[in-house]
Amino acid sequence: MKKKNIIILLAAIITVLAIALIPGNSDTDNYLYTKVQKGDFIAQVYSTGQLQTENSELIVLPKEMSSRNIDLYEIKVSSIVEEGTVVDSGGYVATLDHAAVEELRTKAEDELETALNAYEDAKIDTNLNLSTLRDELLNADVDLEEKKLILEQSIYESPAVKRQASLNVERAQRDLEQKKRNYKLKQKQDEFKVFRAWENVKRRQDKVDDIEKLFNVLDVKAPKPGMVIYSYDRFGKKIKAGSSIIRWRPQIAELPDLSTMLSKTFINEIDISRIKVGQRAQIGIDAFPEKSFQGVVTSVANIGQVIPNGDAKVFEVSIKIEGTDPDLRPAMTTSNIIQTAQLTNVLYAPLECIFSNDTLSYVFIKEGNDYRKQIIQPGISNENQIQLLNGVMEDEILLMNQPVDADKKPFEGMAIYERIKNAETDTLNTESNN
């Protein structure tokens, strides 16, 4: 009896295993499912950012550094107050490199000394040259008088002697006139030489004066009361002691107006087409998780930037925060949720249900123990879900992973694909005609 029972039990077990191993009509029961839902749909874009002030008073290099007389195109910050320091109007902010300006001043003073010596030399040379020419003029005048006397005394001489005396007078006359012209030309030339030397002295003196003015303002002061926030140099790094600042980017720090704040964020190129000025946003502050602020998109960059050490591009977006809060400070990290669309009474499903190839999008709709491969027209999406414009109905069951024999299934709903392609062609033609 025992053996019989054991045999019956083994037979039952073998029967159960055989049934389990026999393949059915479909393996859809091995997949995850979801339903097509209908209702309100909100599309959002998530990003991180950083707080900035909408308005601020810049603290820049002294205006004396922009003088054309100063050959100083960048200067180091020797010291600067700690970021976040609250200063009064006229309060100390930073000190610029005195050594660089001192070196520049020494060189300019040497050049001034050289220019003064050249000016004195020019005056002395002019006096000597003109004095020599005046002596030559005097001698030429005396020589002419002598020739005239000889001509008068030759009245009783032979015609040849009188002719020679007359020629000598003419020659002496021409020589005197030539020396007078030479004297005037040389006088003008030397006057211009002295003038140029004096102009050079004046330029060198102006340069020394401008450098002296710059030297006296190397201690940078605040133009008004406020909290000091460091600016960024040309390499995107925050200004600090030892940083170099160029004349074409003169910002050292800023005094932000904390009454109006912005969240500056960067959106990837995939989502940027969905971001528009005027869209609403919710801003969270990492430093204060319990606080949340409402905001509105105020600007969207037209040109993207390449992420460092990567190929992806991002676009700068500014979100203005509504209201004020004394706890908010520039450079705080923000979490931004930008609402790009809000639809009512539409069909939607999880993103995991949508599959695609090079030309179309499709889903797998469960039908009993089988499924069909249905072409759909997707709409807008958010982080988790996507709108379904055509191809499905409410409450239809969708597979969330692709069946192993999906490639063997034919596509259904080619009419949807044709409508999408025709709509795209019409759009391109319209844009071309415009």
Helix content: 25-40%
Biggest β-sheet, characterized?
Answer: 6 strands, antiparallel, barrel
Across the major sheet, the strand order is 2-12-16-14-13-17
Tally of extended strands? 23
Q: Tell me, what's the shape?
A: elongated
Order of helices and strands: HEEEEEEHHEEEEEEEEEEEEEEEEEH
Residue ranges: pLDDT <50 for 5 or more in a row? Answer: 16-26
The whole-number mean of residue pLDDT values reads 87
Specify Rg, calculated over alpha carbons: 46 Å
Terminus-to-terminus distance: 94 Å
Proportion of residues in β-strands? 25-35%
Structure in words:
With 434 residues, this protein is an alpha+beta fold. It has helices spanning 2-21, 98-153, 159-215, 414-433, and strands spanning 33-35, 37-53, 56-60, 74-80, 86-87, 92-96, 219-221, 226-227, 229-230, 244-246, 251-256, 261-268, 280-285, 288-300, 305-306, 313-321, 333-350, 355-356, 361-367, 370-381, 385-390, 397-399, 411-412. The strands form five sheets. A six-stranded antiparallel β-barrel has the order 2-12-16-14-13-17. A four-stranded antiparallel β-sheet has the order 7-6-4-10, with no helix packed on it. Helix 2 (98-153) runs antiparallel to helix 3. The longest helix has 57 residues, at 159-215.
